[in-house]
Design goal:
single chain, 210 residues
């Protein structure tokens, strides 16, 4: 029993470390996206990003797993993952085009709070009292950050919140498919569907501007 607990702690610690490494790279990518403001519309930038990602992941998946890697069950669930990612990306890119990057990122930090709440509601995962306390304190900080931004930028400051909700939903959906296929397959299908939805959004946006 003690060995199982130690293994669980080790796995959880490794997961936290991987998450920290991943999240530490996001600000760099966000800074690049911010530098493109005015050159490309947000949906087009996002569509290009995930098209390149999906193409690279398809090559890796084919190399590692062959045709079997592209065989999945419940494709609608992967399409839903792609849609939440597309919505979250468009709203966040739109936010950093308009708002200071630091403010948009600070408001979007409500994402872990929502993810913790959603995991309890939809996945029936129990939250410890310390997690509830941290969630409440963090949400209070988001409200403090949001109020002056709404005054300065108008309701466009809500965009990072929309992005946070979509990304939290995406994480819950990711959890639901975590046992279906390999990591490469899961990453490919979410990038594939996100690229499709974002490309459609780009075409509609371009047509509406003409």
């Amino acid at each position: 029993m003690q060995a199982d607990k130690n293994i669980g702690k080790t796995v959880a610690g490794s997961g936290i470390l991987l998450a920290l490494i991943a999240f530490s790279g996001f600000p760099i990518g966000d800074a690049f996206i911010k530098s493109m403001a005015g050159d490309w519309p947000a949906p087009a930038v996002a569509a290009l990003r995930f098209t390149i990602g999906a193409t690279a992941l398809a090559a890796i998946l084919a190399w590692r797993e062959g045709k079997a890697g592209f065989q999945i069950s419940r494709p609608w669930l992967h399409a839903a993952r792609g849609m939440t990612l597309a919505i979250g990306t468009i709203t966040f890119f739109s936010a950093i085009y308009i708002m200071p990057l630091a403010d948009a990122v600070a408001i979007s930090f409500v994402n872990p709070i929502l993810t913790a709440l959603f995991s309890g509601w939809f996945l029936k995962e129990k939250m410890r009292p310390t997690t509830w306390i941290a969630t409440i304190v963090a949400f209070g900080g988001v409200l403090i950050m949001l109020r002056p931004n709404v005054a300065a930028f108008g309701w466009v400051a809500i965009l990072p919140l929309f992005s946070a909700v979509a990304m939290a939903a995406m994480l819950i959906l990711n959890r639901m498919v975590s046992s279906q296929r390999s990591i490469f397959a899961a990453q490919f299908y979410i990038a594939f569907w996100a690229a499709i939805f974002l490309s459609v959004a780009s075409v509609i946006g371009h047509s509406g501007c003409q």
